[in-house]
Amino acid sequence: xxxxxxxxxxxxxxxxxxxxxxxxxxxxxxxxxxxxxxxxxxxxxxxxxxxxxxxxxxxxxxxxxxxxxxxxxxxxxxxxxxxxxxxxxxxxxxxxxxxxxxxxxxxxxxxxxxxxxxxxxxxxxxxxxxxxxxxxxxxxxxxxxxxxxxxxxxxxxxxxxxxxxxxxxxxxxxx
Length: 175
What we know:
Elements: H1 3-18, H2 26-53, H3 57-129, H4 135-174
C-alpha cells in the first residue's frame, strides 16, 4: 500500500481508539469504516498502477482482484451510510413533532387539574381562616392534596401521551 493510503487508515484507527471509552455510535463507526475502505481502494488502485508500470502481471492481477473486492465492499458500505443518513434525517424530522405533540397534550390534560386543586386549596385555607377548620385538619387536607395531585397528574399525562402517540402513529402511517 502507498504511504498516502496508510495515513488515512492510521487516522481512522486513531479515531477508533479515541472513541473506545465513549458511547458507541454505529453510524459513526460505519462512516469511519467507509472512509477506511475508500483509502484502501485508492491504495490498491495505486498498487495496481505501480505493478502495471513495472510490468509485473501477477502482482497487477492480485492488486486488481483485491481492488475489485474492496470496491464492492465500498459500494455496499456507501449504500449503508446513505440509508443510515436517510433514517437519521427522518428521525430528526419526526421526533421533535412527536415530542411537541406529547408535551402539548400533557399540558392540556393537566392544566385543568392543577387549577382545580389550586381552587380546592384556596377553599380549604379560606375555611381555616374563617375558623371552620382546625389547623390539624387543614394540614391533613393539604397533605392529602400533596399526595393525590402528583398521582392524578401522572395518570393524566400517561393518558395524554398514549393518545398523542396513537395520533402520531396514525399520522405517520397515513403519510
